[in-house]
Every structure is written in structure tokens, then in C-alpha cells.
Amino acid sequence: QVQLVESGGGSVQAGGSLRLSCAISGYFDGASCMGWFRQAAGKQREGVADIDGEGKTTYVDSVKGRFTISRDNAKNTLFLEMNSLKPEDSAVYYCAVRGIYLCSRSWSVYAYWGQGTQVTVSS
User: For residue 14, what pLDDT is reported?
Assistant: First the structure.
């Protein structure tokens, strides 16, 4: 059983920063694509960033230049560094592991999910 536990969410003012972490336990392919998703109230879940087993990253346009995804394979931990936060970044953030090498922005193809952590950005 693969388990993912997010931490690092909270409330900040616009322009502030947060660093999300996702601790992953259990057996899984260490080269799997991993990603961060978010879901704001009343909106669909959105892929924010993903990283493959070689460290190649992609980002949704709205966070490019502000967010950085990274992974520590030795510690089975995924990170999301969020800078210059905006009120529209407010959402529940989820980490996910796809289970295969190829990344996708579609949340439905990811096999394992964390429980989510709330990020609230006030203006």
C-alpha cells in the first residue's frame, strides 16, 4: 500500500511563500512520475506541476516562474516551492504518484494520492 502525506499548507498574504512536502511510503517504482494538483472550491482539480524520474518538470502556465517542483528520491519525498503567491492560488493541494515513468496533467491517470493540504492566500 502506497501512502502519501502532505504537509506545509497554511495561510499567507499575497506575495508570500509556502513550501509543500509530500512524504511517500510503501512500495512503488522510484522512477514514477509525481505531481501536484490543486482543487479550489467549486472548481475542477487542476494539474499544477509534475516531475518524472529523471527530474524533467512541467508546469501549468499560471504558476510558471513562481512554483518549483522537486523530488528527493533517496527520501521518497516530493516538494512544491511556491513563491509570489496570489489569492487565486488558494486551494487544497494534493500530491500524487502516477505509477509509471510518463507524466500527465490529467489527474485521472494517477494511482496514488495524498489527503490534501489547504493553502489560503489573502489579498
Answer: 98
